[in-house]
Structure formats: C-alpha cells, structure tokens
Amino acid sequence: MNPDFHYYATYCAAQLTGYTHEESIAIARSDQFVDLCSITFLGKMDAPLSAATTQLQLELMEAPTDIIGLQNITRIWSSFHFLPYDLYAEPKKRCSKRYKNKFRLICKPNGALVRETVMLAKGKSMEAVGIAMHVLADTWAHQNFAGTPSLVINNTNYYFYELFEENGGWREKKIAFRHSASTPDDLENSLYTASIYVNSEKSIMNLGHGRAGHLPDYSFVRYKYLPAWGDYEEVVKDNPSDYMHAFCQMIEAMRYLRGDKEDFVCNRYDWQRIAPYEARIKGIICKRQLDSSADWKALGEELSGQEIPPFDISVFQSGYSAAKKEKDNTVLGRFIIAALAQKSMVTNRIYQSGNKLAGYSVDYRKRFFWVDKAYKMLINSRGGDAK
C-alpha cells in the first residue's frame, strides 16, 4: 500500500472508530512510518537496529543473501508487510521441505497471526496501534506473495491482464512491465514498473510482490495473473473489494483496541460505521489515479473538522537522541518498543512452526544472557513476557 492509504485512509478509519484528532494522527503517522523505519534511519538516531521495519532499496541491494542475510530480510518483511496466513499450510502437490517452508510464508488476510498482531497492540501506545493497522492492511494488498526472496513462490510470467468493468462484463487489457524505478507508472497504457527477472531463488528481485510491480499497492486496479506458487493457475485480484474490506476491518480492530469490543475476531468488518460514507469511500478507492492522498485527506478533514498535516518524519527524530533515560517515552521510542514486540512475536511463531527461514527464536525470559539492549527494552516494557 502507498502513503495515501497508510496515512490518510488510516486517519479516516481512526476517526470513524472514535479516536480523537491527535490520536488519529499518531496512529496514521506510525502506520506510514513502518515503510520508512530502516536501519539507515535508526543508525542516524543511534537507535536499536533490530527495530527496523523496512529496508531501503540500497540496503536491499547491498544485503547479503547468505543464510543470516536471508533470515534478516524475512524477519522484517514477513513481520510487517507480508504476514504469513497459515504457518502449517500444505501445498496441493508433494514437495520438498524447503519449498513447503516458503509456501507457508505466503501472505493472506484473516490468518491467525492477524489476530495476534491486533491483540498484541491492546493496551499499548498509539504507535503500537499504527503498526498493527499497517500489518493488517498489507495482508489485503500483498496477499499471494511472501516476505522472503523466492523465485518459486513470488515469480509471475507474461500472463498478466488488467480488468476493466464494461457493459456489465469485463474487458481485458494485457499489462506490460518495464524496469525503470524512476519512471511513473503509465495508467492509460497499463504500463507498470516491476523488478527484473533474475533466475536465482535468493535474489532480492524475487522478494514480495516485486515481480508484480506496484499493482498490489493501487486500490483501483483489478487484474489476473499466474503466480508461481499456484502452479501457474489463474488468480484474480480485486483490489477495490480488498481495500474496502481492509478499511472496514481496521475499524473493527481499532474498536477492539479502544475497548468498544471485547474481542477481535477475523472475518468481521464494520460496514455499519462507514454506511453514511460508503459511496464516498468507494469512489476514492476506485478512482483511477496514482495517488489518492488529496481525496482521503479531504474526507478525513470533514470527519474531524481539523486539518491533517502532511506526514513529517521529523516527529520521530524529535527528542529521541537528546533523551537519556526517557527515550522510551518519545514517539520513536514507543514505536521501537512496538516494532520489536511485533517482530519478536512473528519470528517466534514462524520458528515454533518448525520453519527456520526467519531464524532462530529463543524464550528471552529463560535465556536472558542472549538478549541485546534493544530486547531488554522490550522485556522491561512488557513485564518480562517477550519471546
């Protein structure tokens, strides 16, 4: 997903949930920051590098693809952008354990880890809520791809068609991909940028939805394609429907986090809260444009009656470096604690399933001598229950 949804749409969802303007800004700000909190940023702030929630293009290009390097990549992308749906899933056909482990990291909405992600943010900071909303929303946009480099899972082929609703049916238009990251996608001609085909299982070009370009991140697009993991059987992706479900599920999740609901249950969506604005929201989601920030911003400001400031990364820089014992109470400090908790939970669940692709995970309560400074912060903040 792009900043239009992660920042402005999340603000709208928080407003419809009942959060104040200030709380909604804090949630939306942290949701968007998940896509920006890199090792490079944390290094400049002298903050724990293990709290990184993304990797910049240059970082990925320089990242080693040995076992340790691949595990680090998988920990970040599976925890925050491609949350696994079923860590015990069985492929339709017989396969190797290596393939099965990668297959089990495929992202889809409404998996058990979505519920754990939301519940993990209960009673925590607004920054924790924002991270949970980012992870939840991405399960809808990024479904059918895995957060680990893999040609046999994430590759696509020439069969890629955009679908247009027309005269009560569907018109198909073949999608063309190019490899110029600096060139905007051409919506009129269905010309999109995607990663370069590399015949290597470990290449970062085969990470996530790189082979499908930005198509999963556009709310308006519908398309069909042949994913490698599905034995190249056709899959139809309906982003407008998925983004509507993501929006309504965020409201459902935040109502639980605010205490309006006793539990968060997957496959439930708060259609009632959006009913007065449903046509407006659908219009924004379906509008064919590269960036819908202005439309979401206008809706959010109507909901709150207050101006939504542009996303400002300096908020995460303010006060952190200067603080000594109070770092945990800064915006970045609270974000770091929540990010470490999320990464720790997902990594532990992957490891418990017998899958080593995200590395080893230990019970830090029993093996405290292994814990670095960053995870000591996490343990202290959670009363010793980190894993």
Task: Quickly give the structural class.
Answer: alpha+beta
Secondary-structure element order, N to C: HHHHHHHHHEEEEEEHHHHHHH
Helicity level, as a percent range?
40-55%
Beta-strand proportion: 5-15%
Supply the number of structural domains.
2
Q: Any idea what the radius of gyration is?
A: 20 Å
Oligomer: single chain
What is the topology, as strand order, of the major beta sheet? 2-1-5-6
Shape: globular
Q: Given the structure, what is the number of helices?
A: 16
Average pLDDT works out at 92
Number of DSSP E strands: 6
- Tell me about the biggest sheet? 4 strands, antiparallel
Distance between the termini: 29 Å
Poorly predicted sequence stretches spanning 5 or more consecutive residues: 364-371, 382-387
Description:
There is one protein chain. The chain has 387 residues and is of the alpha+beta class. The chain folds into two domains: 3-147 and 240-381, no CATH class; 153-238, no CATH class. 44% of the residues lie in helices and 7% in strands. It contains 16 helices and six strands. The protein has helices at 3-17, 21-33, 39-44, 57-62, 67-80, 97-103, 112-120, 126-141, 151-154, 239-258, 271-274, 278-286, 293-304, 314-317, 331-352, 373-381, and strands at residues 160-166, 169-174, 176-178, 191-193, 222-225, 235-238. It has a four-stranded antiparallel beta sheet with strand order 2-1-5-6. Strands 3-4 form a two-stranded parallel sheet. Strand 1 (160-166) and strand 2 form a beta hairpin. Helix 8 (126-141) packs antiparallel against helix 10 (239-258). It starts with a helix and ends in a 6-residue tail after the last helix. The relative contact order is 0.17. Mean pLDDT is 92; it is low at 364-371 and 382-387.
